[in-house]
Amino acid sequence: MRKRDVLAVVTASLLALAAAGCESGSDSGGGGSGGGKIALLLPESQTTRYEQHDRPLFEAKVKELCPDCEVIYSNAQQDQSRQQQQAEAALNNGAKVLVLDPVDGAAAGTIASLAKSKGVPVISYDRLIQNAPIDYYISFDNERVGQLQGEALVNRLKEQGKTSGDIVMINGSPTDNNAKQFNKGAHSALDNSGFKTVPTPDYFTPEWKPENAQKFMEGQIAQLGKDGFAGVYAANDGTAGGAIAAMRAAGIDPVPPTTGQDAELAAIQRIVSGDQYMTVYKAFKPEAEQAATLAVDLVKGNKPSTGKTVDNGSGAVPSFLLEPVVVNQGNIKDTVVKDGLYTTQQICTSAYTAACQAAGLS
Ligand code: BGC
Fold first, then answer.
1. Ligand 1 centre distance from Cα of residue 101 (Å)
2. How many whole angstroms from 6 Cα to the centroid of ligand 1?
């Protein structure tokens, strides 16, 4: 009896599936709808931007511009070989465009070359794919990001009456081309400022992991002493969070000026409470929407011009580069709140009530 029931259910499901298959087959049978599959391949999810902003903004814009398009989404969780597999799967699945934010900008060249061999255009998203043929690059002026961080830090220290001392420098992942650009921009502001970055050579945080930054900072505190440094250059909010946790655990209070990037909610709250000095806001909406618009254009066979190019070691890549913005206590309202990234209610949870009032946020 039971077996027969199961069989009946299975048969019914198979029939339903076959019917659905026929239906969708006849629906798309006309073709020419202008749709197609677009792969969005993001690098990790410990940094909140990817799942909270980049992905939903990209998907919504594709849906708006091309209801017949489908986004194949994958997140590599910081694993380059996983990203390679995800890209291969997307290509096998019929992706007509790859929008790729590489875990490893150099190793991702293999993905770009594979796509090229299949005639599939590649958009390098936020991070540059190096030494391989790619069609477009969409990002921010990343050297400028580093420069803004460095300048803000020096200005803050000068406001505090300091003109010299060590700045502990915590850079991003050694496999991310952006990390090198942030570093270059930061050095342009920090070198010859009177302050000195430590250690030498520069430290780059494996996989951008906050816990790696935290461990590194613990080592620096042990070496330099609790009062042995004037400030901390952290390349993004995740690494800033790690560094601040290490300083707090060592009993450093208040923590010296510390930089960041991404305008993560936790970082905005640390800025409100005074634990982090600044972050760099890179508006996710124009970046994700530019990528989506371009991907849809490519699916439809259009190749828009950009006006700018960036050399990725394999040639001049048509590029869109957006402008980053500094966020500190004084302009949270005029930047991330105004842009609708967060409401003041989201920022000013009960733990931040007093700090929010003092900062004029509530
Ligand atoms: C991005 C940053 C991000 C970092 C870690 C960089 O390439 O530009 O916004 O914080 O990667 O994912």
1. 10
2. 50
Kindly state whether residues 50 and 110 are assigned to the same domain: yes
Helix then strand count (H, E) for the chain reads: 13, 12
- Give the pLDDT confidence score for residue 33 in this predicted structure: 52
Taking the centre of ligand 1 as the mean of its atom positions, its distance from the CA of residue 143, in whole angstroms, is 13
Question: In this structure, what DSSP letter does residue 258 have?
Answer: B
User: Rounded to an integer, what distance in angstroms lies between the CA atom of residue 17 and that of residue 157?
Assistant: 66
Q: Do both 103 and 183 map to the same domain? A: no
> What pLDDT shows up at residue 284?
97
Per-residue model confidence as pLDDT tens digits over 269-302: 999 999 999 999 999 999 999 999 999 999 999 9
Whether residues 215 and 304 fall in one domain: no
Looking at ligand 1, which atom is closest to the CA of residue 46? 12
Q: Report yes or no on 172 lying in a domain.
A: yes
Residues spanned by the domain of 129: 37-134+284-322
Residues 60 and 57: their CA atoms lie apart, in Å, by: 5
Low-confidence residues in the chain, pLDDT < 50: 1, 3-32
Q: Which residues have any ligand 1 atom within 6 Å of their CB?
A: 44, 47, 49, 126-127, 172, 176, 178, 208, 236, 261-262
Same domain, 225 and 298: no
Domain's final residue, options 251, 281, 311: 281
Q: Could you give the CA distance from residue 195 to residue 166 in angstroms, rounded to a whole number? A: 6
Count of the separate structural domains present in the chain: 2
Which ligand 1 atom sits nearest the alpha carbon of residue 127?
7
- Which pLDDT belongs to residue 322? 98
What is the CA(175)–ligand 1 centre distance, in A? 11
